[in-house]
Amino acid sequence: MKKFSLQNGKKRFAIIGLLIFFGFGTVFLRLIWLQVIQNEELARRAANQVTGKVTKYSPRGAILDCNGEELAVSIMSKSLYVDPVEMQDNPTKKGEKPERDVKRLAADLLAGVLQMKADELYSDFTTEARFIWLKRTMEPKEAAEVERIIRENKLPGLHFLEESKRYYTKKSMAAQVLGFVGTDDNGLSGIELALDSVVKGAETQQQEVVDALGRPMGDSGFNKARPQKMASVYLTLDSKIQFVLEDALDKAMKDTKAASAAVILMDPNTGAILGMANRPSFDPNTFYKYPATSWTNRAVSTIYEPGSVFKPIVGVMGLTEKIITPTTMINDTGSIQIADRTIRNWDGEGMGLVPFQDVIKFSINTGMVQLGMQLGAQRMIDYSKKFGFGSVTGIELPGEEEGILYNPDHMYQPDIATMSIGQGIAVTPLQMLRAICAIANGGELLQPYIIDKIVMPDGRVLRQGQKKVVRRVMSEEVAAQMRGMMEQVVAAGGGKAAGIKGYRIAGKTGTAEKLAETGGYAAGKYIASFVGFVPADKPQYAMLIMLDTPQGAFYGSQVSAPVFRDTLQQILVAKGIQPSSSEGLPSFEQHVRNNPAVNSTVPPPAKMPQMEILADGKIKLPDFSGLDMRQTAELIQQGRLVLVPHGSGRARKQSQPPGTVVAEGTKLEIWFYTLGCCQSSRKKSVGTEDIQDGSQV
């Protein structure tokens, strides 16, 4: 055996030292590799093991009226989904079978809450899918009950996501204007569709702490959603005016049994739509429960022959072309023969020689036909296009129709004749009202708009609605002449039923045969309408009411004009627009003689009375004595009642005494008096002289 030597020991120590050095060096280099070179990649891998990407939703932007009153709002609501693969218990020991059937148990426990069949739920739970929606946008109580069941029974695989849920605060009010959204927060009609890209809740991807199965682990600061606020849309609609219009249509539909109806109230000086209502209607909160026909915004999408409401437009053509003046004499023989067509007045009677202003006042068909034949096809079509007929108005609402105009090259004489009385042309209610507004404002054709402004969450105004003049369509002189004629329609002609004592009203009735779906005209079916503006000398409001196929009476003067009167009367009072004159109103002294109990010195109340809303939704009436019209109207509207005013000044008498409990929508008559002026009830009947708008071909 070789003896140990110091030299050999040194060699061994050297070898061992080198091995140790290389070992530490390798470890050191590995650490550098892991901590420096591979640091980012390893950090990413680690993060992926404890975080996952999830979609966070933000609530849809609100829609409000011009006064900031909410019409449509959104809240974040929980939606329930299931991952069937996760729906199993993990046994405590390897090889053991779960003690319970989680899928069966979950189906039985959740069926009642979700209002679903247990077998259908179980069928969903037994698929190989990893994501199945069970219930979208649940009500808070419903979601809370589901959460309790999941927690108490430790049911795996069931998860919630938050989604935006839309609520329409006033139910069916302005339903066709607002539209509605689907379960995926997509706008499907109305403003919701038109501005979907602006108000739709944002979808953002964010990381969240999850467990080994990818499920969120609690409501940590990291996991908390940070919903993005969306823009708010302010409409030009006034909720108070809209309520009056909706109520008026309900009454009109009940009284006339019409198939459908539409009404529009517009500011003739700006083009702003102050109110727009349709019947039949629906509740956008549950739109799926109503037929699709009720979703239609007839104010912009229904095309119909306007009838006599078109006559002022033809009259403007004649005045502009200097074919006639208001005093030009026209021979009315009761009927007129054009080629193979005989066109008659509504009653078949003639008035002999009359000035053209009477042709408008009494809606004389023969006089309009004579004017139309002088204008000719080309000029009538050119002017109609100038007034905006045959093309959309450009309002910010989907589904707007263009209407129908003849090709002048294809018109023969009877076509010209019938167009002059408002048949042979198809328009929308909005087109017709816009054209009449040009007469009201002095000759400017305006682009209607219904969006007042769009405001970002930080207060920036993204978009501002404003008056836009499309073109001038007549001179101020011609507009003034036609306004005068239209005022006489209401004062002494076929539109008397639209008159409001003390106010100057301009308007025109219209009755036209209804177009049949198969072509031609539908026998015995008519469109009755009225269009007008008030005050006639300084118009502030212009309105069109259209009733489709009213039963019984069908002339516009009989069914549409009274709706115009009753509606505008409430709006004028609500807005504090006083009568322009006391002509035709009985004196205060006369009223006192007839009503000795009336106190002519009732002072304003020391304190504004309150409208008491009871727990059952009914209203307890206050004492209106001493309130002016504006104060009375505001108080009435708080209780969603219908004001029927008489006279002007301060309230002295009410049809139902203070303390009376009434239901929402109840009509309340209130008499107002000032020294020298009071107003008695108006006779609400239509005489035969009012029925002068029929177009008989």
Q: If you had to describe this structure to a student in words, what would you say it looks like?
A:
This protein has 697 residues and is α+β, with helices and mostly antiparallel strands. The chain has three domains: 53-92 and 99-228, Penicillin-binding protein 2a (Domain 2) (Alpha-Beta Complex), CATH 3.90.1310.10; 239-287 and 297-574, Beta-lactamase, CATH 3.40.710.10; 588-678, no CATH class. The strands form eight sheets. Strands 2, 3, 4, 5, 7, 15 and 16 form a seven-stranded mixed β-sheet that branches. Strands 9-8-20-19-18 form a five-stranded antiparallel β-sheet, sandwiched between helices. A hairpin with a 5-residue loop joins strand 15 (451-455) and strand 16 (461-464). It is elongated, with a radius of gyration of 37 Å. Mean pLDDT is 83; it is low at 48-52, 218-226, 584-600 and 675-692.
The structural domain count equals: 3
Helix amount = 25-40%
Please indicate the percent range of residues in DSSP E strands (runs of 2 or more): 15-25%
Number of helices: 20
Rough shape? elongated
Record the SSE blueprint.
Elements: H1 6-37, H2 39-50, E1 51-57, E2 63-64, E3 70-82, H3 102-114, H4 118-125, E4 132-135, H5 140-153, E5 158-168, H6 175-178, H7 190-194, H8 196-199, E6 203-209, E7 232-235, H9 239-256, E8 260-266, E9 273-279, H10 298-301, H11 311-320, E10 329-332, E11 335-338, E12 341-344, E13 352-355, H12 356-361, H13 365-386, H14 413-420, H15 429-440, E14 444-446, E15 451-455, E16 461-464, E17 469-472, H16 476-492, E18 506-515, E19 521-534, E20 541-548, H17 556-559, H18 561-574, H19 588-594, E21 612-613, E22 619-620, H20 629-638, E23 642-647, E24 650-654, E25 661-662, E26 667-674, E27 677-678
Parallel strand pairs: 2-7, 23-26
Antiparallel strand pairs: 1-6, 2-3, 3-4, 3-5, 7-15, 8-9, 8-20, 10-13, 11-12, 14-17, 15-16, 18-19, 19-20, 21-22, 22-25, 24-26, 26-27
Helix pairs in contact: 3-4, 3-5, 9-18, 11-13, 11-16, 13-14
